[in-house]
């Protein structure tokens, strides 16, 4: 385990594959005393690192991502190699060494940063890869251009919310966000896959590190229609959570809240990641905001039985009802 967390966090900031989800303060919030960082260090410099959260489910050792942590995976220091072939060779060497020091496990599941592109050594070590997609507004420096790239239908929804007197504020308690977040899951017949205490721990860590903002869309009677929760650093703002009142969805307030979140993100980050754009009912909403489709890797390893079981549990949770409740307890 890496002892010098300041050195590690500086490495994360410099790594092309680094994100706020890799930072030690985030890991302390989502997996206190349950994570470890395997790394390659030479001449007092970290060359590669891989944060891992290991847990046992029914006595089976698994390396999984914590809830509300959409990105982990391997990070590299910026390459000093002048040739592509040399840079690639160095990546292969480092990945191979990291795989050799992985803790023993029966099943592995992580989603890697979109800047991680070379999974060949993982393939050689019997890992599997699935391509996933998110939508990314890569350059927030020109908000007029960002607005221009938004689809006409999405713009109409934003204007509709404004005409109905919806305004977006940020001075509402976290408890109100948790209520409306839960409403969205209940509308789909799903169990919220994380506890309120878990979100509060993340929120406290984010506030301490100046890394979150919540946007509440309210009407003239102060009824809460929708909310958007983003986390951010100076590189990327991420849409982490959201929610809308099922009885007030016709106002399209969620579109306005999301647009205000993007506007704020332009003051603190270089880009905006909508995160989680694989669901067919969510993808059109995110696509409508004009982001580019960006691919990233879901990396797994385990025997066919464990992989099938884990996939089946996740699918059963997504179907809602009693299976959702049971699977939520098992998976999370």
What is the secondary structure topology, with strand pairs?
Layout: H1 5-14, H2 24-30, E1 35-42, E2 45-57, E3 60-63, E4 75-76, H3 84-100, E5 107-111, H4 120-124, E6 128-137, H5 143-149, H6 152-163, E7 167-169, H7 174-187, H8 196-208, E8 212-218, E9 224-232, E10 236-244, H9 253-268, E11 271-273, H10 283-287, E12 292-302, H11 304-318, H12 321-331
Describe this structure in words.
This protein is α+β, with helices and mostly antiparallel strands and 332 residues long. It has two domains: 165 residues, Aminopeptidase (3-Layer(aba) Sandwich); 152 residues, Gcn5-related N-acetyltransferase (GNAT) (Aminopeptidase), CATH 3.40.630.30. 40% of the residues lie in helices and 25% in strands. It contains twelve helices and twelve strands. Strands 1, 2, 3, 4, 5, 6, 7, 8, 9, 10, 11 and 12 form a twelve-stranded mixed beta sheet that branches. Helix 11 packs across helix 12. The radius of gyration is 20 Å and the shape is globular. The chain starts with a helix and ends with a helix.
Total strands: the figure is: 12
Strand proportion, as a percent range, falls in 25-35%
Within CATH, the superfamily of the largest domain carries the name Gcn5-related N-acetyltransferase (GNAT)
State the domain count. 2
């Amino acid at each position: 385990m890496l002892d010098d967390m300041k050195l590690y966090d500086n490495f994360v900031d410099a790594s092309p594959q680094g994100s706020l989800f890799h930072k030690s303060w985030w890991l302390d919030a989502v997996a206190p005393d349950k994570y470890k960082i395997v790394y390659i260090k030479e001449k007092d410099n970290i060359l590669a690192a891989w944060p891992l959260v290991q847990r046992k489910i029914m006595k089976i050792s698994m390396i999984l991502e914590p809830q509300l942590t959409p990105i982990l995976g391997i990070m590299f220091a910026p390459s000093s190699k002048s040739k592509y072939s040399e840079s690639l060779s160095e990546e292969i060497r480092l990945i191979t060494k990291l795989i050799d020091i992985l803790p023993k496990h029966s099943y592995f599941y992580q989603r890697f940063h979109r800047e991680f592109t070379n999974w060949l050594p993982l393939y050689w070590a019997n890992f599997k890869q699935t391509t996933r997609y998110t939508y990314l507004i890569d350059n927030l420096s020109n908000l007029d251009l960002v607005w221009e790239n938004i689809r006409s239908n999405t713009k109409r929804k934003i204007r509709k919310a404004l005409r109905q007197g919806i305004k977006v504020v940020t001075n509402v308690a976290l408890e109100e966000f948790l209520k409306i977040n839960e409403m969205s899951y209940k509308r789909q017949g799903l169990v919220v896959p994380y506890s309120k205490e878990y979100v509060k721990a993340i929120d406290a860590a984010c506030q301490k590190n100046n890394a979150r903002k919540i946007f509440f869309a309210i009407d003239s009677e102060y009824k809460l229609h929708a909310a958007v929760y983003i986390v951010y650093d100076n590189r990327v703002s991420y849409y982490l959570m959201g929610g809308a009142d099922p009885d007030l969805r016709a106002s399209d307030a969620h579109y306005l809240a999301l647009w205000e979140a993007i506007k704020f993100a332009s003051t603190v980050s270089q880009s905006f990641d909508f995160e989680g754009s694989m669901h067919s009912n969510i993808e059109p909403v995110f696509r409508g905001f004009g982001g580019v489709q960006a691919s990233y890797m879901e990396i797994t390893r385990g025997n066919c039985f464990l992989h099938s079981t884990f996939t089946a549990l996740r699918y059963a949770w997504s179907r809602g009802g009693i299976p959702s409740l049971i699977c939520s307890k098992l998976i999370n």
